[in-house]
Amino acid sequence: MDTIYALSTAQGKAGVAVIRVSGTRAFTAVKALAGDVPQPRKASLRVLKDRDGVRLDEALVLTFAEDHSFTGEETVEFQVHGSTAVVAAVLEALSDIDGLRPADPGEFTRRAMENGRLDLAQVEGLADLIEAETEAQRRQALRVLSGDLGRRAEGWRKNLIRAAALLEATIDFADEDVPVDVSPEVTELVESVVASLRKEISGVSTAERIRSGFEVAIVGAPNVGKSTLLNALAGRDAAITSEYAGTTRDVIEVRMDLSGLPVTLLDTAGLRETEDAVESIGIDRARQRAQMADLRVFLVEGDTAPDLTPEADDIVLRAKADLLGESTGAISGKTGAGIAQLVDRLTDTLKSRASGVGIATRLRHKQAMERGLMSLEAALVLLPQGEDQADIAAEELRTAIRALDSLVGRIDIENVLDEIFASFCLGK
Ligand SMILES: Nc1nc2c(c(=O)[nH]1)N(C=O)[C@@H](CNc1ccc(C(=O)N[C@@H](CCC(=O)O)C(=O)O)cc1)CN2
Ligand SMILES: Nc1nc2c(ncn2[C@@H]2O[C@H](COP(=O)(O)OP(=O)(O)OP(=O)(O)O)[C@@H](O)[C@H]2O)c(=O)[nH]1
Ligand SMILES: [Mg+2]
After folding, report:
1. 273 CB contacts (<8 Å, ≥6 apart)?
2. pTM of the shown model
3. In testing the pocket of ligand 1, which one of 20, 62, 70 has its CB within 8 Å of the most ligand atoms?
4. pLDDT tens digit string along 184-210?
5. 3.40.50.2020, 1.20.210.10, 3.40.1260.10, 3.30.1360.120: CATH of 3-103
6. Is the ipTM of this complex over 0.95?
7. What is the dihedral of CA 302, 303, 307, 309, to 10 degrees?
């Protein structure tokens, strides 16, 4: 297998940049550039030179022996001065060494997985950790990276293998007159896995929100101050505001971090009947996005009723607080009145939704668990029907085991792998 190398830190100017080399020729590479192979895991200062002896940089060099590195392969890291010229020169020198080639995006991680250091779910966790922008995202990704899902799946697998073995024993002994009724134990094992799967499945949609962000739409009639409110919440002029009703047409998105939760705020076109063809398209989009959002903030001015129906947790506020005598339940993007209270309320509502997340975080996990659950439910129907159905029930258990195996990539991974690694950065 080729030895691969890549810049592992971000492109561009930086204090320090890390160039990583992994594979059977990594120590050959460090010897060529640094003159020797520094003691593993000990940061060692070396002058790096190309093959003509031209000095490239003074760098800290780290080596990792095979089986004691992130990838599981022999690995070397060059921590160089982070200029584009130094990085380019070192990469160039590496390309001169036989058997070395630039890594593909995610290839170090792919090797870590192939060498059994990470399972598929952990690879997904690592991808999420690198993408994480908020606290909730960081915590969730780190939990997945730590291998919780794999360990849980291993527990399910053990229980189901035991259940299947017990059932198969019944089949084998069916002709003999040793009547062993194993079905209570089998039922108990299967039921415990079913309960655990149901719980994990129910947490996935929330985990998905934490990964991709909650959507909160601001809706209301034209000119009530929706865009002004969005700008106040965002702390910048993201949307155009004006005294003309019908200013906003496209949906304007602003990313926010609400106490660690990722939120996309949506400003939408004011809802009304209109003859204007373009405004009308904007209003259709506004309705659609508002309906799909996790939460809506309705701004109401005067006694106009919102012409979309608020749902359970939706927030309804009176607009332009400064023009009203009393101010409770009113807000003003212009004066800032009520903004802090709105932020608190949004945070509380979304936080309560974000609780109850388990250790499965992706649609892929949900689908695998749902397939497993379906087979187990079928088995639970067959079990009380006695020995004639035992072989079909055992087959359902096997099918469930296979479905759950795909969670950690024990089976059918090629199709998912390409998709996951395509999203990785170079050097990871
Ligand atoms: N410089 C640097 N920093 C980094 C990484 C890296 O590859 N290089 N990581 C990369 O993502 C993360 C750390 N993850 C790592 C995971 C395992 C091993 C490792 O060497 N594991 C060996 C030895 C363990 C030990 O001796 O304690 C092993 O598991 O056998 C290294 C880094 C974040 N920071
Ligand atoms: N007095 C007062 N005026 C406000 C307030 N918020 C917005 N306005 C004014 O109301 C007008 C409309 O504000 P926008 O934020 O553009 O209203 P909008 O709801 O986004 O309007 P459309 O995009 O047309 O649907 C502007 O002239 C704002 O300056 C407020 O809290 N108090
Ligand atoms: Mg607007």
Report:
1. none
2. 0.85
3. 70
4. 899 999 999 999 999 999 999 999 999
5. 3.30.1360.120
6. no
7. 110
